[in-house]
Amino acid sequence: NDGYRLWLQYAPIEKSDLAEGYKQQLQQIYLSNTSATMQVIQDELDLALGKMLALSPRYSSSNNSSTAPGLIIASPSQRPSLNEMITSEEYAALGEEGYLLRTISNGKKTQILITGNTDIALLYGTYELLRKLQTHSSLEKINLQSSPKTAIRVLNHWDNPDRTVERGYAGASIWDWHRLPDYIHPQYLDYARANASIGINGTVLTNVNANAQVLTPYFLRKVAKLAEVFRPYGIKVYLTARFSAPMELGGLSTADPTQPEVQEWWDNKVNEIYEYIPDFGGFLVKADSEGQPGPQNYDRSQAQGANMLAQALKAHQGIVMWRAFVYTNETPDDRAKQAYNEFKPLDGDFDDNVIVQVKNGAIDFQPREPFHPMFGAMPQTPLMMEFQITQEYLGQGTHLVYLAPMYEEVLDTDTYAEGPGTTVAGIIEGRQSGSLLTGMAGVSNIGTDRNWTGHLFGQANWYAFGKLAWDPSLSSEEIAEEWSQMTFTNDPSSTETITRIMMLSHEAAVNYMTPLGLHHIMGWSHHYGPGPWVTDKHRDDWTSTYYHQADRLGIGFDRTVKGSNALGQYAPEIQKLYGNPATCPEKYLLWFHHLPWEYVMPSGRSLWEEIALHYQKGVDQSREMLYAWQSLSTEIDPARYHQVESFLRIQEKEAIWWKDACLLYFQQFSQRPFPKEVEKPEHSLEYYQNYEPKFVPGI
Ligand code: BDP
Q: Which pLDDT score is estimated for 330?
C-alpha cells in the first residue's frame, strides 16, 4: 500500500455480521443514471462496495420495482414520491449542495435514503454513506442533513506551467500541461474523486505568482479539458490572473485599471475564456505583493484593481478572489499592519462578485499566528479564509504536523467585532457581511508523489481542510479519528494512538520551532530549519531579527501601543486581553510583547527558562510521537509504516536541531544557563549557522 488511495481505501470489512448487514441493505439500489454525475455515483458505489463487501449491487430506477431497494439515491425530480416524505422546507434548507441521509421504513423494509436538490448533492451524500461504511458505523436510525457553510471551497495550487510547484514538497505539478488536452492522466479523476469526497468544489490550477501565459488559447484548451474532467464531480476551475497580462499578452502600454483599453482587454479575455469553459469559476489574484504587479503601480486602490476584473466576469457569474497579502518593500514599523491598513479603508468599495482572500494570520502562514485583524474589520466585504495546507513553515514534506487544530484555533477565535460571539468562522460563513459569497481556500500540498502529499500524514491536512471548509465548526479531533479509520485501520486502539499522535503534532512543532509567540525565525529563502540569525537582507521584513528583536534586555515584537500598535487593529476586548502580558495567552506572548529575559511567567520561571523548556518539550513530544507510532508496527502495512517511521526519526533529529540552534542563538543575548531539564546542544552555534542548508529540493 503506497498510500495512493488516500482515505478512499475501501478496505474489506472483515467483521462478518457487520458486512452481512451492509450487504443486505445495499444489494438493491435505486438510482436513475441520467447524468455524468449519477454515473460517477454508480462507479464509486461499484468500486467501494466491491472492495469493502465483495458486492456488485443491482441498480434500478423503476419506481414500481418488485423488490424494494435498500438504498435510494434520488432527488425529488428523479423520484417525485420523495415529496411526500420530505417537505419542501427541508429541501429548501438543503440548498444546492446539501444532502439528507435518513433511515426510513416502507412498512416491511428498512431503507436508506440519500436525497438532495442536485446530482452533486447526491454525490456528496453518497460519499457520506461510504464514510459510514468505512468507519464501520451503524446504518440504523441515521438522520442527518448537511449543507456546506461556505460556498467556495477551493484548493489553490501554486503550480507553474513548467510543472514546478512553488512551496511544493511532493514532486512535480500533477497538471501535465504538455500532454493535455489529449492525454487525461488517471490521477485527474482520482483527484476529483478525493476532492468531491470532502466537498471541495473548486480548484485554482495555477500559482498566485502568476504567469500570463496561462491565459493564452494554448493553455485555455488544456484548462478546458481539466474543467470537463472535473465537472461531473462538482469542481469548477479557476485561474490566477497576472495583473500586467494586458501588457504582456495584449501589447498594451499600461495595465492601469482606469484605462478603457485595459478594461476592454480584460472583458475580451474573459469572454474568450468562457467560450472554452462555460462554467469557469473566475480569477485568483495576487497583486502588489512580493514583486507581483498590481493597481499600486498606477496609484490605484486594491478595489479599483479587483473591480475591473469583477466587471469583466460579472456577466458570466464569475468571481474574483483578491488576495489581501499585500505588503510593500519598505514596511516601516510592522509588516503585520499592512494588509489591514491597505484594505480597511476600502470596506464597501468592492463589487458584489469580489471576495477578499485573507491569510489566517497577518504575517505569513507561520507555525502559529493570532487571527488576522482583517477578520471582523470589514463588515461590508466578503472575506474568505486562506490556509496553507502545504507545510512551508511546518517541516515541509518531512514532519508530521496535523494542521487541523491550528485551523480550528483560528476559526474558533472570537474577534468581538460585533460583540462576543463574532468568531472568525462566523465571519467567513458570511454572518457579518450578509453576503452569500463565502469561502475557504487551502494552498495545496499535492504533487506527483505516489502518495500525493510527500508525507502520508499530509493527506490528513488535505482531508481536514475540505471538511472544515464545508463546516468550520467541526472538531479537529473527530476529523483525525475519522481520517485515520478510513486511511489506516478501524482497530480502536490503533485509531486512538494515531489520533493522539496527530493531536499532539502541531503543538509539538510550535514548541520546537517558534514557542510562546515567536515567529519568522526559519532558514533563509527555503524556509526549512532554524535561522534565527537571518539578518541584513534587502528587505528587513524578510529577516528573523526584524521579528524576534532579541537583545541583551529581552525578546519579542512589541505590538502594543508602546510599540507598533498592530494590536490597535483588533477589537477593544482583544486589545485589552492581549495588550497586557499578564493576560495575553502565553502562545501569543512574544507576538505582542517585548519582554525581559527575567520576566516572571505564570509558572514562576523566567521567560528565558520557559522558552528553553518549550524547545525541550517540543523535542520530547516529537519522541513521544515516534514511540507511539512504533507501537503500531504490527498494525500498519509495512510500506506505509516504514515511511512514516523514518520521517518521524528525521523529525526528532530536526526538533533537536531547532532547539539547539535557537537556544544557542538566543543565549548569546540572554546570557543565562540552560535549565537542567534541557538536553545539552550537540554542537556550537557556529556549527548550526554553517550547517544551515542553502537549498532545499522541492521549491
Ligand atoms: C509566502 C511564500 C511565497 C508565496 C507567498 C504568497 O514563501 O512563496 O508566494 O507566501 O502567499 O509564504 O503569495
A: 62
| CATH 3.90.1330.10 given to domain 510-557+594-691 | yes
φ/ψ region of 179 (left if φ > 0, alpha if ψ in -120 to 50, else beta) reads alpha
**Which residue from 335, 388, 392, 520 has its CB within 8 A of the most atoms of ligand 1, so it is best to mutate?**
392
Query: pLDDT tens digits for 577-611?
Result: 999 999 999 999 999 999 999 999 999 999 999 99
Active site residues: 290, 364, 392
Q: Which CATH number fits domain 152-487: 3.20.20.80, 3.30.470.20, 2.40.50.140, 3.90.1150.10?
A: 3.20.20.80
Q: Return d(Cα 139, Cα 580) in angstroms, integer.
A: 52
> Is the predicted pLDDT of residue 699 greater than 80, yes or no?
no
Which residues form the pocket of ligand 1, taking CB atoms under 6 Å from any ligand atom?
166-167, 208-209, 286, 290, 325, 364-365, 392
Q: In angstroms, what CA-CA distances link 86 with 15, 99, 124, 234?
A: 34, 12, 18, 24
pLDDT band at 329 (very low <50, low <70, confident <90, very high): low
How far, in Å, is the centroid of ligand 1 from the Cα of 443?
A: 10
Q: What residue type is 536 in one-letter code?
A: D
The ligand 1 atom nearest the CA atom of 443: 11
Q: Whose CA is nearest to atom 1 of ligand 1?
A: 364
Contact residues for 250 (Cβ-Cβ < 8 A; gap 6+): 265, 269
Query: CB of 175 within 8 A of CB of 205?
Result: yes
pLDDT number for residue 57: 97
Q: Which atom of ligand 1 is nearest to the CA of 208?
A: 13
292 CA closest ligand 1 atom index: 13
At the fourth CATH level, which superfamily is domain 16-146? Chitobiase/beta-hexosaminidase domain 2-like (3.30.379.10)
Q: What is the ipTM of this complex?
A: 0.99
pTM, two decimal places: 0.98
* Alpha carbon of 406 to ligand 1 centroid (Å): 19
Mean pLDDT value of segment 36-50: 98
